[in-house]
Amino acid sequence: MAQGGDGKLESTRRKTPGGGSTSIRCVSSYERIAREQGFTRIAGVDEVGRGSLFGPVFAAAVLLDPLRPIRGLRDSKILDAKTRAELVEHIKSRCICWAVGGADVFEIDQINILQASRLAMRRAVEALSLAPDYLLIDAVTVDLPLMQLPLIDGDARCRAIAAASIIAKVHRDNCLNEWDRVFPQYNLAANKGYSTPDHKRALRKHGPTLLHRFSFEPVRATSINVHWTGYITDPPSQGELFDAAGMPSQLEVPRDLACAESTSVQMDDELPHHAARAGE
């Protein structure tokens, strides 16, 4: 089902006179257009930890209150931990409702990280105390009979998705801090389970735990024993998460863990996005 009429949602990328582009603006236009079309319970949905080598993938869903705006919402990956911690309290106190969902490492290794991310998102939506009638989602759709608008770079472009990304990120980071107490040799409190040099050194020295993702090649490469025999179905490739050397994609690593030189978020020219029911 397509987004109709004058409600087409345009990219927030802006070209400069020199032919470059500026950072993506995080706006509330998507929520406003949905409300103009008659939707009243609009949820932003995002996942975190997709590129991590360790533990579950988490997702959050949030219904923002249009009468109680929140300053500073943007992609959680470009915010420092202190700012995220402050924002998450504002989001929780000012939103209509929020919820967190997850998919554990065993589900990831059975159905692949993409499908596990979608499952975590669905669980977050289903856990909301007020059922939404419209979903704004980062990049994908979920298996629910609801109107949905998947947005590439949604956590950088849409305030509702950005709010969900911040909730999910803080929740996951807190969990990794607790797991660090159980597995201190992997330095999970600092690297958050991503494929950082210290984490890879620990994997080579100690081998993986059963909470590492054996469907990810960098984990299997350090394991003497084979704990993973393949997906239960034939999923799409997850090769976009890692390069030939097993290094994670910069898009899958929070900025405070990556060595990226650029701090702005940019994207290529896109086709217009459309809202759709999952499966249509």
Brief overview:
The protein has 280 residues and is α/β, with parallel strands linked by helices. Helices cover 32% and strands 12% of the residues.
Task: Sum up the structure in keywords.
280 residues; Nucleotidyltransferase, domain 5; 2 domains; six-stranded mixed sheet; disordered C terminus
Describe the protein:
The protein folds into two domains: 17-172, Nucleotidyltransferase, domain 5; 177-252, no CATH class. Helix 3 (105-111) packs across helix 4. The longest helix is centred in the middle third of the chain and has 24 residues, at 159-182. The chain is an alpha/beta fold and 280 residues long. Strands 3-2-1-4-5-6 form a six-stranded mixed beta sheet. It is globular and about 55 Å long. Mean pLDDT is 81; it is low at 1-21 and 258-280. The protein contains nine helices and six strands; from the N terminus they run αββαβααββαααααβ.
